[in-house]
Design brief:
single chain, 78% helix
């Protein structure tokens, strides 16, 4: 089973699970639409985690899928795994704390890893083209 397809499946699962989390938070708050932009509000945290995921996951899925169709170096496969792991860390860093008012290590590491490993995947694809 190719690592790239596992990563694509995990990223898709993350985004759908976060959407479900938004629905559950709406049910708890009895809100059909909208949310309070209060960093202490769990619905807001779920909405931001889902929104953040939908901003990054589609591009990462395409990069991982396309690179997975080519013979690539081992470091590229590691970048696929690590960027997937970092997206989970970023999501956990948004929904686990009681508030989003303060920075936390999960969110920081997840975000930084998304940038570093995501850009590495972009570079890997460019290197494949050249």
């Amino acid at each position: 089973m190719p690592v790239s397809l596992v990563c694509v499946a995990l990223l898709g699962t993350l985004t759908i699970a976060l959407g479900f989390g938004v629905s559950m938070a709406r049910a708890r708050e009895r809100r059909v639409y909208g949310y309070s932009e209060d960093p202490d509000n769990s619905l807001y945290q779920w909405v931001r985690a889902h929104g953040n995921s939908t901003e990054y996951v589609p591009v990462l899925m395409v990069l991982i899928y396309v690179l997975g169709q080519m013979p690539v170096a081992g470091w590229v496969v590691w970048c696929m795994v690590l960027v997937t792991f970092c997206r989970y860390l970023a999501a956990l860093g948004l929904v686990l704390p009681k508030t989003m008012r303060k920075p936390n290590p999960l969110r920081f590491i997840g975000s930084l890893g998304t940038y570093v490993f995501g850009l590495a995947l972009c570079a890997a694809l460019l290197l494949q083209i050249l």
